[in-house]
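Handout for the seminar on molecular recognition.
Each group receives one record of this type.
Step one: identify the two inputs.
Step two: read the structure output and locate the region that could contact zinc ion.
Step three: write two sentences on what you found, then compare them with the reference statements printed after the record.
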Amino acid sequence: MTSITPTRLSDGRELIYFDAHEDSAARHRDPAASRDTRGLPPRGPAGTARFDALSGEWVAVAAHRQSRTHLPPADQCPLCPTTPANLSEIPATDYEVVVFENRFSSFGPDLGALPETPGWGTTATASGRCEVVAFDSAHEGSFGSLSPERARTVIDAWAHRTEALSAMPGIKQVFCFENRGADIGVTLLHPHGQIYAYPFIPPRAATLAARAAAFFDASGGRQTLMGHALAAERSSGDRMVIEGKHFSAFVPFAARWPVEVHLVPHRQVADLAGLSDEERNELTTVYLELLGRLDAPYPTPTPYIAAWQQAPIDDELRPASYLHLQLTSPRRAADKLKFLAGSEAAMGAFINDTTPESVADALRRATPTENVSGVPARKDHP
Ligand SMILES: [Zn+2]
């Protein structure tokens, strides 16, 4: 059972402790022990969102993000617990999992809907919310190096935030994700993920949702597109990586990246908040095993983007939507990364130099690495 303790940072941002252990939760409930003494100045206004009439897509203009922290040394890490020498973003001497509003936010802090019929030259407040999820108080690692217990608490935090953010005014999509590796733009080494709550449905989510809705409607509301894909993958087995009781992981038929895996629940659920306790338990072990397999073939950690595709906050699209994780890596070899070149970056047309079947075969054969980040694996709360 995860205890949830909300508080505020000195500039008014919300911070929430998620604890599996009652002694830890009790410390966080004590206002004196977790007070932010930094006296931060008030937050600036939200940035703007511009409508690109040529593509129909919104673009957030967040020039203030240029000043954000970039790969700070461990003794100045903003995600480590606070010490007298490092008054970090987390005003506690220790923690399990913490979520807080990003100080360098692309969306928010204002909330509200974007104009319904944007056109040429439409500019609006970039409303919404961006949150940071600190996975563990230890400075090094990533999701894959968490103990199962800690990973399970992160899943509860994602589920809680998905439900809470989905209920906020103007939010259309909640996106939980983790970027791993400086090669793909990570600016903090401390194990963490992010949650974006957008005031619009982002382009790729919109494409997936529209395809899912068309399939669902054509089947008279009896079949989901992802359910159909999952059944086909489980029956053929050619691209399967892990098959559990409640979750399966497979390389998609038309994978775009050198490494791409979809982790899919066997039951249709709209988002992480819809998963049962039993499903969350299995997700913990299956996801940790999958990340271990991803690292196994190489001497260094594989950079990746782990992206949760959840149902948009939209009554028409939601019934057809199906929660799943899209795990992608640009790694082509131990020391080679795929860069998005002309065809991919300019046209959105991917060319994959590997076959999905050979990637699935390699991931199936791999012996999962417990942890390659140099910190003790499977670290549990003392
Ligand atoms: Zn740190």
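Reference statements: Confidence is low (pLDDT under 50) at residues 371-382. Residues 254 and 356 are 7 Å apart (CA to CA).
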